[in-house]
Amino acid sequence: VRKSMVLLKNGKSMNKPLLPLDKNASKILVAGTHSDNLGYQCGGWTLEWQGLSGNSTIGTTILEAIKLVVSPSTKVVYKKNPDADYVKGQGFSYAIVVVGEPPYAEYFGDNLNLTIPLGGGDTIKNVCGSLKCLVILISGRPLVIKPYLPLVDAFVAAWLPGTEGQGVTDVIFGDYGFQGKLPRTWFKSV
């Protein structure tokens, strides 16, 4: 998991990187459909042919891994799909938004527009429009991210990390460096 993660963006400018994240932050917002869902982390061809949603196997979700790695004094708030009003004025140090595709295999995953499904784009806009944020994309292929890049401070492709959410947190909190590379340039549009 650690070796496959690809850092796509880190900071709105090269002089102000967001990663590695601060483990001692006072309050962190964790949002997105893929934050607390092992089935989504695993994808298709895993628990079943088309995969499953939910925590129906043994493992660590990304949300659980975040709670394990941050300081005991850090308050971790999870809200799957917060609206923009909820995010403002809550005193969050930063946000981690985990979005992506539902599990699929073969032709069931055909997608002609490759947009981020399950309301992921709205979650990115609602959260990253008001807070410093890291977006983690869980998918088996590149998806359209260009519309969200100006809003986002850091963007990571975590592909399908499976049951080991702690492999994701090992890298975003700086215990290990990013090693993953893209085999080709991420597309600007479909």
What does this protein structure show overall?
This is beta-glucosidase. This protein has 190 residues and is α/β, with parallel strands linked by helices. The protein has one domain (2-173): Rossmann fold, CATH 3.40.50.1700. The protein has 5 helices and 6 strands, in the order E-E-H-H-E-H-E-H-E-E-H. It has helices at residues 38-42, 62-69, 84-87, 120-128, 165-172; strands at 6-10, 27-31, 75-79, 94-100, 133-138, 154-157. The chain has a 6-stranded mixed sheet with strand order 1-6-5-4-2-3, with helices on both faces. Strand 4 (94-100), helix 4 (120-128) and strand 5 (133-138) form a beta-alpha-beta unit. Helix 2 crosses helix 5 (165-172). The radius of gyration is 15 Å and the shape is globular.
Give me a quick take on this structure.
Keywords: Glycosidase, Hydrolase, Signal. The protein has 190 residues and is an alpha/beta fold. It has helices at residues 38-42, 62-69, 84-87, 120-128, 165-172; strands spanning 6-10, 27-31, 75-79, 94-100, 133-138, 154-157.
Q: What is the CATH class name?
A: Alpha Beta
Radius of gyration: 15 Å
The CATH homologous superfamily is called Glycoside hydrolase family 3 C-terminal domain
User: What is the 3D shape?
Assistant: globular
| Helix percentage range | 10-25%
What CATH calls the topology is Rossmann fold
CATH architecture: 3-Layer(aba) Sandwich
What fraction of the residues are assigned to beta strands by DSSP? Answer: 15-25%
DSSP E strands, number: 6
Q: SS-based structural class? A: alpha/beta
Unreliable residue stretches: none
Q: From N to C, what is the helix and strand string?
A: EEHHEHEHEEH
Total count of domains:
1
**Terminal-residue CA separation:** 27 Å
Q: What is the number of helices?
A: 5
Order of strands across the biggest sheet?
1-6-5-4-2-3
Mean pLDDT across residues: 94
Biggest sheet: strands, sense, closure? 6 strands, mixed
EC number: 3.2.1.21
GO molecular function: beta-glucosidase activity
Pfam families: Glyco_hydro_3_C
Keywords: Glycosidase, Hydrolase, Signal
